[in-house]
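Narrative of activities, Objective 1.

The group set out to show that a structural description can be obtained from nothing but a protein's sequence at a throughput compatible with the screening campaign. Below is one input-output pair from the validation batch, recorded exactly as produced.
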Amino acid sequence: MKQILIIAIFVVFGGFISAQTQLPNKSFEQWTTTDKGNAVPKYWHSYGDGDCQLKGIYSWGCGPLTKNHSNRVTGHTGYGCEIYSTSISGNLVNGVLTTGQMQFASTDNKSADNCTYTDKDNKLGHKAAMAFTGRPDSVYFWCKFEMKKPSNVAIAKFHLHGNIAYRDISTHSASTAQKGKIGNAYCDIKDHNDQKWHRYKYKFTYYDEQNHVVSSTSRTPSYILVCFSTNKIAKGGNNGDKLIIDDIEMIYNKRLSFIEIDGHPLPGFNPDITEYTYACDDPARIPEVSAEAQSPNATVRIESAPQQILITVTHDDGEQVYRIALHDEVVKR
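Output recorded for this entry:
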């Protein structure tokens, strides 16, 4: 009969961060300028370098091209990025922050020519393309509102895509089919109407090449196109609506769902505990071990030896190791 004692050590999941699995300048501490109404975080873009293809009076609908509709402000930690809507000649222009290139080419709000896209070939010289190879499970970020009407809904879109000039327009939905689409997170951001910072958490959905939802993907993204707007509807909301954004973090879940030894659940298993001691009658025998990752995009490797079992969960941003020490007698605390 086996005697079992579990010794547990809690750990913090940090992971390895690289430029391609987290957004650069994700906390908005680096800025190209801090002039009020013309500020933009490094690696991000807004109206200031937008491509306005409209002519004459219609070009007013592009927004003031010398302004970015964003400011550097006190954030959740350090600085944050405030985007705001404004009215130009009676036309409401949403505040926008993106990793891509903004393009204005039609007076029709629903036209596909009005879009934000990944300028992977740097055609306009703005470096409006963010390289990215991760397949995150979720995205977390902090926001605070200053909305004229608390019922207004802002939006954030995170598009993972291949080596193409992927486009986002206001009429696209999460399920919109598009060449090169790999995964996305569509985030409706609702005002808590309390003037406080709140953390928002949204899951990524992944797709196959036929745009069917899949639980996991083997396709590696080339870029990520991120778009924040003060309202989910083009020219929606009210003049002066403000959305402050900070601390965007891609989450790669490296936790296990379960561990089984010789077909039985490991007693005391907790996905946030990585160190165990397992006492058995015959530690010289290598037990049969099985485990499963919580994330479908993570892989599990099990290495068994007479005195230790190592279970390594690997995701795009690094590894998390679970260790089980084997002993031939009950170990006292």
